[in-house]
What does this fold into?
Amino acid sequence: MEFTGHGRVAAARVIRRAMSAPASKSPATLHDVAREAGVSLATASRSLNGSARKVNEAYRERVVEAAQRLGYTTNLFAQAVAKGSTTTVALLVADIADPYFSSIAAGVIDAASEEGLVVTIAVTGRNAQRELETVKALRGQRPRVMILAGSRTTGSTVEEQLRGELSAFEDTGGKAAFISQDAPPFASVLLDNRGGARDLAVALAGLGYRDVAVIAGPPEIRTAEERLDGFAAGLAEHGIPLPPERVIHTDFTRDGGYRGTQDLLASKAPVDLIFAVNDVMAVGVVSALRDAGIVPGVGIGVAGYDDIPTVRDITPALTTVRIPLEDVGRRALQLATGPAPGSTDPMADGSRRPIPMETVIRESTPRRQV
It folds into this structure.
């Protein structure tokens, strides 16, 4: 290309500016830090990358100061490749908007922060295929721990594939843990869903309830089925039947509880108590009763399961089964990383003993007048 007149002058100015401009500064490397601190590359690496090999404190301080002066930051991906994992905990939940899962997440985050770990959360939507694909994707990010908090499903065609992915993850140094159901050989925080529901049914029978219905989740969700089975067993101990027409299977959500209650009321079945197999569904039950002109806790009693914070504040306050959800999250992280030194927590050693549940009677199930 040829320039003439003013064009040659402008081009010359551009070239002079380009030649006189300082070269862009490249990011500092570990070699730069070692040279600045006057130590070997190995010493600089051990000082900054959390090596188990002890470094002389004076050398370590020199390296840290040099790194700060040069603006050096560690390459976390390179560390992950070298060590086989990052400082990340991957938590898989069905629905982060559900207070059940957000409470568990709070416990995981609390325990992880004490160990210098960072938690990332993935939502599976109670979809087994999506859960599998998420685990596959997470493996490539090399988290130290994967915690699966969603209930297991029966008859899933991808369950064996999921176990294979998790086994491969553990073979490369990671650790997997489940919450709710036992999933050997992986670490599991077990929840006594059957026992908690059975105790709730016994307590409600003792309050005089006899015409009972259940708003259950999808039959393939093991948590829902365990709670339904336990509740039916507790009623049977008092000679109270639970006919199939009084068990409504619906979505494991607030809207599912609402629609299930509408279907139940439309059936005209005589009911003095509705048990929803989780608290979020029970909130839907309360709303559906009100919309039908029935006062919850007066016309029909309502009970849930989980004791999420919300149900203590609704009117009437909800009878439920308390799970120490934040503690469940902490224990899952402990199982995956190992108990803290000197820990006396019997659940932190990988024990298969389920976490006990607690029945909490509130205003939504007053004693029946007979």
In short: Residues 3 and 9 are 9 Å apart (CA to CA). The first helix runs from residue 6 to 20. The chain has three domains: 13-74, 87-191+327-338, 193-322+356-360. Residues 87-191+327-338 form a domain with the Rossmann fold fold (CATH 3.40.50.2300).
